[in-house]
Amino acid sequence: MKNVFLSKKVSARLVLSALLFHGVLAYGQQLTAEQNTTIWHAKQGGVVKLEKFLTQKIPFIDYQKVVLPGPQFIISDDPEYVRIPDAIASKERVQPGTVRLYVYNVNGVVEPFKMDRKITAILKNTGKSPMHMRMLKYSSQVPGNNYFKIGKQGLADYFASKDENVVRVIMPGAAISIDEKLETYIAKYDELVHGIYEFVIDQPGEVSVVQADPKLKGAAVLNKIKNVIPRSHQNAGRGLFGVSNYQITTDGVYNTDSGPVQIMLADGVKDKWVAGYEGVSGDPVQLAGNYGVMYNIEVKWKSTNGKGLALIIWNSSSGNSQWCSGMGTSMVVSNGKYKEGIIQLPVDSLITTAAPEAIVVQVFTPSTNGEEQTIHITYSPPGASCLPVPLVLVPVDIK
Fold first, then answer.
1. pTM for this structure?
2. What's the pLDDT tens digit per position in 51-65?
3. Which distant-in-sequence residues (6+ apart) come within 8 Å of 87 by Cβ?
4. Domain segments of the chain: what residues?
5. Where does the record locate the signal sequence feature (predicted)?
6. Which of 126, 261, 286, 394 has its CA 20 to 30 A from that of 103?
7. Distance separating alpha carbons of residues 54 and 394, to the nearest angstrom
């Protein structure tokens, strides 16, 4: 999988602009009786094959997008492959309050030779009083070459994490490792370091993601390493972003007699990239892919024809690049035929490939009187996958 994820992200950015999903014609293709049965009896998170059904012409369902209060958001993904043995991959100043940090960097050192490295995240107190830091959400993966697995598990762990009661104190001018596990992990060549952290602080600070000799511990990396790698203007990007959470509410009440529809997120067209600034240069930046942004989705629906409603996803970008051959993710979905909760997708395999493959996320049954119901989904664009990943609502017969 050498350079797979780098190429995927570059490819995703290039092909997204070509995927202008402006299908306004009625979607004539319906599920066959066999496909209905397949979806109804599928395991949650299972892969099913829907021949001649999945296309980019499925109509959109419109939605309202509202920025929710959320943390200051930092992502470190430019450069994704850190080629310099000892260097700062990103550095951002943050203010008192909540911070979300998404670390997505790979040991890419080949000169003077391939070597083991440590990639770690450091928080420095730049204020005049002691800083109190407490972790709210925590997801940390062991470095590895299986980027799809790391991305899926990283999201699942983030969704499942809980507030911690431990308060760490950082004196003015001092620094600590945000994730103490990163201090023990060794990243070999081409191995991904992946972490999603949400923490609260009460003093201004500086967050740095650094690649260094594994023997250097904690804040010592900042004392020795000063050079910041310039932005490459590739991959998702890096910087500090003001938008970290969205509320997505579909327009009106979807009725199953309307046929299949799709919710399109993180495509860069219908759903624009979030904007921010890069701390070292001060340049305005965009987060291509909105990786690490959390979407709280609400779909109101009803059934006047007695049909249920399946939520499926598929790898719609598979035909646009050799690097988009797989997709895997995790999300939280409300109660339906299966219990509400976190689900890794797909559940029995690492990825789904291309149409006709789809993943059954959940199946919702109609109310007895055709009354309105509400579906809740928590979604974030999946790391290690090309985008967009359409959320498709498909009417299904109840078996």
1. 0.91
2. 999 998 999 999 999
3. 210, 211, 225, 227, 228, 229
4. 4-69+244-396, 72-241
5. 1-26
6. 126
7. 11
